[in-house]
Amino acid sequence: MIFSGFALTTGAIVWIAVGVAGVCIVAAGVSAAVRGVKRLKRKIRRTINDSVTAQIVKTVAGPIRRGEIDMGDIMHQAVKESLEEQPKSVSGMTSLMLPRITRDFPDFEYDEMRERTKNVLKSYLQAIEQKDVSILTDVGDEVKQDARDFIYELNNNRRSRHFDSVKIHQIEIKNYNKTAGRCVITFELAVEYYDYITDTAGSLISGSKTSKHQTRFNIDLIYVQDREIVEQSGSNALGINCPNCGAPLKMLGAKTCQYCGTGIVDINLRAWVYNRISEYSR
Hints:
It is a single chain. This protein is of the alpha+beta class. The chain has 7 helices and 7 strands. Strands 3, 4, 5, 6 and 7 form a 5-stranded antiparallel sheet that branches. Strands 1-2 form a two-stranded antiparallel ribbon.
């Protein structure tokens, strides 16, 4: 076959056809992309024409063009404010841990303990803010000493710390640990508040009165046989034994000793005490 003075084989014709088809496909793809961009532009224009959005654009467009407003700063501030409004996440192991707890302690009231834990945290923050450890209830000596240490440091530096608008977003059981008669339930709380420090004149030293602080707290709730003994000894690992025969109590929530049948609850004071409160923001 003769074409424009050249002889083309059947194979060459096929390759030309494939090449032309490829060019057509690429062109079609480019055309589709262009149409997509145009559609996007039309959507943006329609959005801008919305009364609220249009007003915002009109307000900031001029200052942006004149360099009076930095879009980078605007984005940074928007992200910062978004993070301030975003509560921290918690582990949420309640569904796994609670059955183990109620198996050991059939009378354990989960809803009641959740509310007690919230109140303990609020009283802890309030005690530091008001510099008054007597506000604390349901806590052991370790928590009281931590509060005293905070208060001592504040007084030593002539400072006051403030926790305004405390809000607890979520509370869940994070862990349940039982070894040698010691039982500890760890609650995890997602909390927000305005956290700042002032001097004796009330002037702001650090923190912010306008930016929220999103954080987490771990709070340990420990089961003890006799609160007075624990507080006097300073030990959190008190073993629980039958007061009659001395046998170890394998089931911490048992009403009677499995060896001699002695009533346990009626003879021994049993208490849940909060013995650790720690904050972590990561």
